[in-house]
Amino acid sequence: MLEILTGIISGTISGTGMGGGTILILVLTMFMGIEQHIAQGANLIFFIPTSIAAIIAIFKDKLINWKTGITIGIAGIFGAAIGASIAVRMGADHLRKYFGFFLIAITIFEIYYVVNKYILNKRKT
Predict the structure, then answer these.
(1) What was the pLDDT predicted at 15?
(2) Which residue of 4, 10, 78, 102 is surrounded by the most CB atoms within 10 Å?
(3) 3-class DSSP assignment, residue 40
């Protein structure tokens, strides 16, 4: 049941374009005791169908900038190959720590963005 609930929540978040895989990896490692490498591998498999579903839904609304998307996609393929080759050589503990640092950095950025956009800009008006 936890797997189904995790899939639904992660898929919903992925469909919004916000990275449901982050939630998936956290649940798999923290609550289900799955090793970091395996959780990240499962996330990659999870990513394929959720991305296709999101692309179809967003394509219908004509919200895709194909030139930018293809450019980023091609660069992402190279980056993914580099990242995967680094990850397989790295121990699970190090990988977990780097993933944690990544989440902290994203959190700080998001807080900064919200404070800057919604709080500081309201004071100026």
Answers:
(1) 64
(2) 10
(3) helix
Distance CA 121, CA 51 (A): 34
Give 16's DSSP letter.
T
Q: Which two tokens stand for residue 56?
A: 């179809």
For the chain, which residues score pLDDT lower than 70?
Answer: 14-19, 123-125
Find the helix packing angle between 36-60 and 66-89, rounded to 10°: 170
Domain carrying residue 56: 2-124
The total number of structural domains that make up the chain: 1
Q: Are 39 and 28 in contact (CB under 8 A)?
A: yes
Over its C-alpha atoms, the chain yields an Rg (Å, rounded) of 17
The amino acid sitting at 123 is R
Phi-psi sector, 63: left (phi>0), alpha (psi -120 to 50), beta: alpha
Instruction: Using a cut of 0.90, tell me whether the model's pTM lies above it.
Output: no
Per-residue pLDDT of 27-51, as tens digits, reads 888 888 999 889 988 888 888 888 8
Give the total residue count for the chain. 125
